[in-house]
Amino acid sequence: MTGLRWSPHGTLWPPQIDAALLLRQSVERPSGSGIYVVMPDPEMTVHEAANS
Fold it and tell me: Is it true that the peptide bond before 30 is cis, omega within 30 degrees of 0?
């Protein structure tokens, strides 16, 4: 996986996921699109990355 793509307005996270932290760890691609990509450590699962 090259990253997890998500949108603050279209992605629903379980309550235990800190979406504000995930946003800080993400990059908007392309700029101005409202679509973010979080690039986890290759050794982590998506769930682990979202909760790190």
Answer: yes
Question: Looking at the whole model, is its pTM more than 0.85?
Answer: no
Give the C-alpha separation, 15 to 30, whole Å: 28
Tokens of 8: 């603050």
Calculate the CA 12 to chain-centre distance: 11
Hey, is 37 helix, strand or coil?
Answer: strand
What is d(CA 26, CA 28) in angstroms, rounded to the nearest whole number?
Answer: 7
Q: What is the pLDDT of residues 23-50, one digit of tens each?
A: 888 888 888 999 998 876 656 565 665 5
